[in-house]
Amino acid sequence: MPKAVAAAIGAYERSGRYDAVADYDAALMLTFQKGNELAFQELVERNHPRVIGLAYRFTNNAAEAEDLAQEVFLRIYRARHTYKPTAKFSTWMFRIASNASLNALRARAKRRDDVSMTLLAGEEDHPAALADTESRSPDHLLHQRDLRETVREALRALPEKQQVAVILSKYEGLNHADIARTIGCSTMAVKSLLARARDNLRNRLFRHLGTASGQPSDG
Amino acid sequence: MASPVCHWVRSVLSAHLDGELKSSTAQAVRRHLKRCPACRDHLRQLEETWRLLDAADAPPLRPGFTGRMMKRIVEEKALEQMEARLRPQRLRRRALRAVTGLAAGLAIGFALYGWTGRPHEPNSPVEREVCRHVGFLEDADLLDKIAVIQAIDQWTHAPGTTNGT
Q1: Which of A61, A72, A217 is most worth mutating to test chain B (most B CB atoms within 10 A of its CB)?
Q2: A145 and A126 share a domain?
Q3: With contacts defined as CB-CB under 8 Å, which chain A residues touch B26?
Q4: Claim to verify: residue A36 and residue A78 sit in the same structural domain
Q5: What is the pTM of this model?
Q6: Mutual orientation of helices B37-52 and A187-209 as an angle, nearest 10°?
Q7: Residue A14 distance to chain B (closest CA, Å)
Q8: Does A139 lie in the same domain as A101?
Q9: Of A153, A179, A199, A218, which to mutate for an interface test with B (greatest number of B Cβ within 10 Å)?
């Protein structure tokens, strides 16, 4: 651990404000707050895959996800003087990223250019899709592509808060308490959001796919 | 038709799958699932739904993000420095604007006062008549005061008064 980071951790531990040892990113941010730019660079290096991932889950567009990630780190950079490690750094970062992504989606909805964006985000230029073409049968590929599109559609059709809760839970592995802190609601509300989201997704996905397991059970 | 117990179990299945139920509640849910095939089926569908979400492709990562980001930070710093340099000028400009506004306000205020405070000549016959009456009343008032003063004066100078000479 670099000396500067260790010093920042020590200072905050002595003040008893937050367990910065458990949160290396918070310690990096504190080091950056004291003027060490390398700490910010490390913060970006460590966290950018998660931020781009989150933005991509919302937008389904790689270029837009990277732009959003840059925006998120820029906001973090600008907040260096006011940052206080009162909660996990990742919670704060995900809150900024979710808000930025949702704002981008709202702006996109306003522009009503969803169709062109979907075309831009098509699987043809996606590395995973290219790798698929080499190893899978056409039937399988078609099924995979349909499934991917159906899942995207089902996620996109969820109300905003449910969408955020699902993305943070499923793809970022956050527990209910952390999701609650990220979206600013109670843990009970997150439980209810996720339950409703799962039901909505189940209804949509099972209806679209018509899988062998049949229709959603009604009891 | 699901029983109230089935209804309750299904409402907490999502939290159960996330491992977010208290151990006693989780135990009760497990007990119910053992003897209720419909709720077991519901649980299976929820599990499958969650698993289907894996089909959404993983985000592609273009190498060199940190480098691009730090370049953007350099631009941001240049902007911040420029803003810091412009801030005193902007403050001066704002102060100048405030002083100019105040001076203009005062000038307009004085002009208005001068315009409304200036005595003006009566124009219409009615106005002239009113002015004449007011003038008469003012004169009458003055005459009354003079009469009172003269009366006092006469009384004080009259022979036989104690103060008289």
Answers
A1: A217
A2: yes
A3: none
A4: yes
A5: 0.66
A6: 90
A7: 32
A8: no
A9: A199
Confidence class of residue A126 from pLDDT cuts 50, 70 and 90?
very low
Q: For residue B86, is it within any domain?
A: yes
**A74–B15 CB contact, under 8 Å:** no
Q: Which residue of A has its CA nearest to B55?
A: A148
Domain coverage including residue B111: 72-118
Instruction: List all residues 6 or more positions away from A155 whose beta carbon is below 8 Å from its beta carbon.
Output: A57, A163, A166, A167, A201, B53, B56
Those residues whose C-beta lies under 8 Å from the C-beta of residue A169, and which sit 6 or more positions away, are A176, A179, A194, B18
Q: What is the 3-class SS of A103-115, one letter each residue?
A: HHHHHHHHHCCHH
pLDDT at residue A131 tops 50: no
**In chain B, what percentage of residues exceed pLDDT 70?**
92
Confidence of residue A128 (pLDDT cuts 50, 70, 90): very low
C-beta atoms of A176 and B12 within 8 A: no
Q: Is the dihedral of CA B16, B19, B21, B23 positive or negative?
A: positive
Task: Please state the ipTM of this predicted complex.
Answer: 0.72
In a domain, B135, yes or no: yes
Residue A125 reports pLDDT greater than 50 = no
How many residues are present in chain B?
A: 165
The total number of structural domains in chain B stands at 3
Measure the N-to-C terminal CA separation of chain B; round to a whole number of Å.
127
Q: Report the gap between the CA of A167 and the closest CA in chain B (Å).
A: 10
Shared-domain flag, residues A131 and A70: no
Q: How many CB atoms lie within 10 A of CB A77?
A: 19
- Decide if A216 and B45 are in contact by the 8 Å CB cutoff: yes
Q: Which domain holds residue A136?
A: 122-156
**Amino acid in position A127:** P
Largest CA distance in chain A: 62
Give the angle A22-A102-A70 at the CA atoms, nearest 5°. 60
Confidence of residue B83 (pLDDT cuts 50, 70, 90): confident
Domain termination site, one of A48, A83, A112: A112
Give the pLDDT of residue B41: 94
